């Protein structure tokens, strides 16, 4: 079956767009969490305050996917929604040592 033979409804198109968008958010989130995985290594020495800040940052990153639906609900599909990028979400700032 070719693309032309399968007519996608606007609802299916929107659902596919949102699913892909959420996948990209999770990929970025996972990469950012991976950057701080070092804090769990036994030979890493960091201050307690920095470790606490990193743990808070990591939790905020884990919470990001739960904010996607509210964020996307602000935009009309397709005109406004397709112009949105996951960088528009309220990503937390990585703490400095």
Essential attributes:
97 residues, mainly alpha, 47% helix, 0% strand
List the helices and strands and how they pair.
Layout (H helix, E strand, L loop, with lengths): L9 H25 L13 H16 L4 H5 L25
**What series of H and E elements makes up the topology?**
HHH
Give the distance, in angstroms, between the N- and C-terminal Cα atoms: 55 Å
Whole-number mean pLDDT = 90
Biggest sheet character: none
Q: What is the 3D form?
A: elongated
Number of strands: 0
Helical content class: 40-55%
- Our Rg estimate from Cα atoms comes to 18 Å
Low-confidence stretches: none
Based on secondary structure, the structural category is: mainly alpha
Q: With helices defined by DSSP (H or I, 4 residues minimum), what is the helix count?
A: 3
Please indicate the count of domains: 1
Relative strand content: under 5%
Explain this structure to me?
The chain has one domain (9-88). It contains 3 helices and no strands. It is elongated and about 55 Å long. Helices cover 47% and strands 0% of the residues. It is mainly alpha-helical. The protein has helices at residues 10-34, 48-63, 68-72. The mean pLDDT is 90.
Short recap of the structure:
With 97 residues, the chain is mainly α.
């Amino acid at each position: 079956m070719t693309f032309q033979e399968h007519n996608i409804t606007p609802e299916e198109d929107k659902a596919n767009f949102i699913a892909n968008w959420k996948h990209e958010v999770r990929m970025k989130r996972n990469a950012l969490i991976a950057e701080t995985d070092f804090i769990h290594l036994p030979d890493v020495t960091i201050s307690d305050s920095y470790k606490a800040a990193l743990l808070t940052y990591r939790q905020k990153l884990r919470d990001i996917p739960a904010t996607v639906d509210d964020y996307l609900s602000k935009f009309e599909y397709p005109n406004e929604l397709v112009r949105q990028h996951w960088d528009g979400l309220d990503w937390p700032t990585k703490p400095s040592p």
